[in-house]
Every structure is written in structure tokens, then in C-alpha cells.
Design brief:
By secondary structure, the protein is mainly beta. It has one helix and 39 strands. The strands form 19 sheets. It has a three-stranded antiparallel beta sheet, with no helix packed on it. A two-stranded antiparallel sheet has the order 1-2. It has a two-stranded antiparallel ribbon with strand order 3-4.
Length: about 375
């Protein structure tokens, strides 16, 4: 009875020992169709020997074969129980990979355990291996193609925003002289561009101007004004003493004698009215004829002197006044005021005896003239 108990105990001890995982190279035994396991990270061969799990595979110690890492995973080390997912920017496209492959320039991969990389779309690029994200082309550049490793600079006359697939031409009214530009420049006042993709502005020519930015044409200088320089932002009004009847002019015309302009921006000269004159070109005002003179016509450059028998005591007059009984205008020319010939002898006619002779044609003794009807001559005189 004692002998039977000892035999059973020994058999149980033997089975228990050989059921433990065994190191590599250990020869396994089979008992009652049960095989003891190898350590994790190894597998048992057909020769019933524990073998180290190779790189690119996993082993749990219970299998007779190593399990290759699936696509998207890899394992660089031996004796492994699991595979590693390929990181962002990398991929594995074969089972049993020992390392992940970096995405080449022109491609990227944002996720893990990937089996392929993604080609960069138009407007993006990658210029390094192992990129996890595509880089948008910076403003001022573009890329029309996929799978690109760089971007193309926008040429002069064009611009781009970030991530552009093509450059955009500057619109009329703007320009860009430089390459690689994120925007266009507005044509300044006095300049314009009338075509797309302009690299420079055009100055407004003399006779035209432009007060605004971003313009596609210049304005014709209006009548009464001029511009005499290229690139003018404003038209200049003709000064007093000049005028300009035409549009698109580069200068103004000075008024001739007998004419004037007394405001800026005149489109025509003004004729001097009767009683006035101008004796020089470019006059801003008409000059009144001084006392003792007159001018009955317009647009004249001189005044007439009041002749003998006539006078003019006021400035700016178109006519002269005559004397009545007892009065005279004795000067040959430029008589300003009449002379009283009678002194203390009222109504003396035709002479007061002192050489003063009244020149009234129809002077009637004991009567005097009434003031002229238009009020331009003083009392006791006539026109």
C-alpha cells in the first residue's frame, strides 16, 4: 500500500515540472499527448525544441510556429510577444516586417499602423522623409501637382494665398513687381493699370489726372483746368487772369488786353465792360476809367479823355457830361469837373467876362439845365 502511494506522487511531480515553460533549446517531452510550453517570445520546432521568435514575428510559447507581423505592423527585435504599429509618417506593406518604412518626400501619413502613404494634394508639399502631415504652400507660392516636394513662387504680376493650386493674376487697377507675393499693390493716385497681371503702373499723362487709388484709367482734365506733369493726382484750376476752354489741356491761356478773368477755373475770358479797360495781358480784373476819362465800348485797352466842353467827374463811366449856362469845361482833354464861369453873376451868358465861356448848345438865358435822366451827370449838367 505504501509503495502504490509513492508511485502516484512521483508521477504527479514529473508532470508538474515538465508543464512549466521552457527556455530556448530545451528539448520538450510529450506525455499523455500533452506538450509542455516554451517561454513567451519563443515557439517549439518540429524537433520539439524551443526556438527564439525571429524579428518580424510574435510568439506566445504555445505554438509550433512564429506568427509574422501583419501589414501595418513591425517588430525589429527577436523574442517578442507582440508587434508594433507603424507610427505616423511611416508604413509597412508586407507581413513579417522588421522595420517601418518612412514616407518619402511628396507623401505623408497622419495615422498609425498604415500600409501605405498618402500623396500630397495640389497646393501642398512635403520635403522630408517620414512626414505625418502635408504642408500647405505658403502665401506667395502655389503647387498645381500632387505628390510634390516643393512649391512654385508666384511670378511678378500674380499673387497667391496659402495652399494655392495656381497663381492669381493681379486685377486691373493693381500690380505686383515682385515674385513670391501674397497680394497685389493698388495703383496709387496719379497712376493706373488697365490690364490683368500688371507688373508696373502707368503714370497719367499731362492733360489727365487720377485722384483715386486702384484705378484702371485716368480722367481727362476738364475745361478751366490743366495738368502739366505726368502722374498728376489732381487737375489745377486756371488762375485768375487766365482761362482754358478745352478739355485735356496742359496749360492755361492768358487773357488779352481788353479782357480779364477774376476767378479761378475760368473757361473763357470776360470782355471789359464800357467804362473799363485792361492794358496788359493776364489781367485778373478790369480797371475803371479814371475821372476825366470814359470808354463807351467793351473789350478795350484804353480810355478816352473828356474833351473840351465835356467832363467826367466819376470813375468807370461809359460817357461824358456837358455843361449848362454859366459853366464850362475848358481843358483840351481829361476834364474832370466843370468850371463855374458866372461866379457871382447868375445866368451870365455866353461869357462872364473872365474868359470862361459856356458850351451849352441850347443855353437859354435865365434858365438852367435839369439833371440828366439817367443820373450819371451832376445837377446843372447834361449828357
Amino acid at each position: 500500500m505504501v509503495f502504490a502511494t509513492s508511485f502516484v506522487s512521483a508521477a504527479l511531480m514529473f508532470a508538474s515540472v515538465h508543464a512549466l515553460p521552457q527556455p530556448e533549446g530545451h528539448a520538450l517531452t510529450k506525455r499523455n499527448n500533452a506538450v509542455t510550453t516554451c517561454n513567451p517570445g519563443s515557439y517549439y520546432s518540429t524537433a520539439m525544441v524551443c526556438v527564439v521568435c525571429p524579428a518580424g514575428s510574435t510568439c506566445d510559447g504555445t505554438s509550433g510556429t512564429a506568427q509574422p507581423c501583419t501589414s501595418g505592423y513591425y517588430q525589429p527585435n527577436k523574442n517578442s510577444t507582440s508587434c508594433l504599429p507603424s507610427p505616423a509618417g511611416y508604413y509597412t506593406n508586407q507581413a513579417g516586417s522588421t522595420q517601418a518604412t518612412a514616407c518619402s518626400p511628396g507623401s505623408y501619413e497622419p495615422g498609425r499602423n498604415s500600409t501605405a502613404c498618402i500623396g500630397t494634394p495640389a497646393g501642398f508639399y512635403t520635403n522630408q522623409r517620414g512626414s505625418a502631415a502635408a504642408i500647405p504652400c505658403p502665401a506667395g507660392s502655389y503647387q498645381s501637382n500632387k505628390n510634390s516636394t516643393s512649391c512654385t513662387a508666384a511670378q511678378a504680376g500674380y499673387y497667391t494665398n496659402a495652399g494655392a493650386i495656381q497663381a492669381v493674376a493681379c486685377s486691373p487697377g493693381s500690380y505686383q513687381p515682385s515674385t513670391n507675393s501674397p497680394s497685389c499693390l493698388l495703383a496709387p493716385a496719379g497712376y493706373y493699370t488697365n490690364k490683368k497681371a500688371a507688373t508696373a503702373t502707368t503714370a497719367c499723362s499731362p492733360g489727365s489726372y487720377q485722384p483715386n487709388k486702384n484705378s484702371t484709367a485716368c480722367l481727362v482734365t476738364p475745361a478751366g483746368s490743366y495738368t502739366n506733369l505726368k502722374g498728376s493726382a489732381q487737375a489745377t484750376r486756371c488762375p485768375a487772369g487766365s482761362y482754358q476752354p478745352n478739355k485735356g489741356s496742359t496749360s492755361c491761356i492768358s487773357t488779352n488786353t481788353g479782357y480779364f478773368t477774376n476767378t479761378t477755373g475760368s473757361t473763357s475770358a470776360v470782355a471789359c465792360p464800357p467804362g473799363h479797360y485792361t492794358s496788359s495781358n493776364g489781367s485778373p480784373t478790369a480797371t475803371p476809367c479814371p475821372p476825366g476819362t470814359y470808354q463807351p465800348y467793351s473789350a478795350q485797352n484804353f480810355c478816352y479823355g473828356a474833351p473840351s466842353g465835356r467832363f467826367q467827374s466819376m470813375a468807370g463811366q461809359a460817357g461824358v457830361c456837358g455843361t449848362c449856362c454859366g459853366w464850362a469845361a475848358p481843358l483840351v482833354n481829361n476834364n474832370i469837373n466843370p468850371v463855374n464861369c458866372t461866379g457871382g453873376k447868375p445866368n451870365a451868358y455866353p461869357s462872364s467876362g473872365d474868359g470862361c465861356i459856356s458850351t451849352a448848345v441850347s443855353c437859354v438865358h435865365t434858365k438852367t439845365c435839369v439833371q440828366s435822366a439817367n443820373g450819371t451827370c451832376p445837377a446843372a449838367t447834361f449828357t
